[in-house]
Every structure is written in structure tokens, then in C-alpha cells.
Amino acid sequence: MVDAKDIKLIILDCDGVLTDGAIIYNEQRVESKHFNAKDGLGIRMAMEWGIEVAIITGRSSELLAQRCSDLRITHLYQSIRHKFKATEELLEKLGLTWENTAIMGDDWNDMPMLEKAGISSTPSDAFPDIKSRVDLVMEREGGKGAVRELIEWILKEQGCYEEAVQKLLDRFMAQ
After folding, report:
1. E strand or H helix at 9, and its extent?
2. Does this model's pTM top 0.70?
3. N or C: which end of the chain has fewer CB atoms below 10 A?
4. CA angle, 105 then 52 then 116, to 5°
5. How many helices (H) and strands (E) does the chain have?
6. How many Å separate Cα 133 from the centre of its chain?
7. Helix, strand, or coil here: 56?
8. What does the pLDDT read at residue 160?
9. In a 10 Å sphere around its CB, with 0-12 CB exposed, 13-18 middle and 19+ buried, how is residue 105 labelled?
10. Which tens digits make up the pLDDT trace of 50-88?
11. Hey, which bits of 13-167 come out as E strands?
């Protein structure tokens, strides 16, 4: 695990990380997902502080695209079979290295990225074999604040948490 001060990019999986992993269809085959507002505010705080945020997921969802639009996340990669390759392409595009990344995933398809990440993490409800292979296991579950917990940990380790919160509060006051 690298020093959190080196983190300039947070990469997240969607199902099981930004959501609780449930894939819900109604009788009309319309999908629904539950995103956590606390995770969203954490993402906004990280981005306000200058940390890039990306979503790399194996599935495709208009709901995720909408959530990313709402949060102004511009690095959204859906229907990705090889997340490792997509991550390398993103790092090259941003001029960053693996050591600059914190990645949160929850299952085997995330493991190639997690193994190479500067800081690897997983929600508390990941399977034991996944949890045993990452740097950080969050106390919170996927879709229930695990992303926010990781972001706050990074900002605190970087020594800028209070400043990042104040910057976010100033933005809210100006609106």
C-alpha cells in the first residue's frame, strides 16, 4: 500500500460498491438501482479537492450514467470486460500511475485492478477471499457508505479533510 498522499484518482466498481449489489427488474424488465447519497457527497468532496473519480464496471446501465451525470463524473466506463486494461488506458490519459490510484471493488472481476492499485479496498460485505487480498476493508457495506468511508480516510490521511469539508460547505453557501 502506498502513502495516501500519492492518491490522485479513485476508481470504483458499481454493483456491490456504489450499490448494494442488488440488480432489480420490475415486470416490465425495467432495472432499478439504489445509490447512497452519502457516497455521492463524498465523491463530490473528493472531486472538489482535485481527486479524479472514475467508475469502471462490467455491466451497462442508464441509471449509472444518470448518477454519474448528476455527480459530474466524466470518467465512466461501462460494459468493460477487461477492467485492468481500461484502468491502464485511463491512467495514461490522465498522466498518472497505478501508485496514484485508490480502487474499490468487491469481487473477482475487480481483482486484477485491486492487486495493482496504490491502495486497494473493498466494502465490508465482500466475500472473505476478496477481503483477504486488499489493503483496506471498509466498515460499511457496498451501497451503504463504503465509498464515502474510503474518501474520508484518504482525505484525512492526506491531511486535508477539514479543508475539503470547508471547501464543500463554502460551495453550498454560495449557491
Report:
1. strand 9-12
2. yes
3. C
4. 40
5. 7, 8
6. 18
7. strand
8. 95
9. buried
10. 999 999 999 999 999 999 999 999 999 999 999 999 999
11. 24-25, 31-32, 52-56, 75-77, 101-104, 119-122, 136-137
Residues 83 and 79: their CA atoms lie apart, in Å, by 9
Nine cell digits for residue 123: 466494502
**C-alpha cell recorded at residue 78:** 461501462
Helix, strand, coil percentages, rounded to 5, for the chain:
45, 15, 40
String of b and e for 53-63 (b: at least 16 CB within 10 Å)?
bbbbbbeebee
Report d(CA 46, CA 115) in Å as an integer. Answer: 23
H or E stretch including 66?
Answer: helix 62-71
- Asked whether the CA dihedral 170, 68, 122, 95 is positive or negative, the reply is negative
Contact between 21 and 58 (Cβ < 8 Å) = no
Distance CA 44, CA 35 (A): 14
DSSP class of residue 8 equals -
Question: pLDDT value at position 43?
Answer: 97
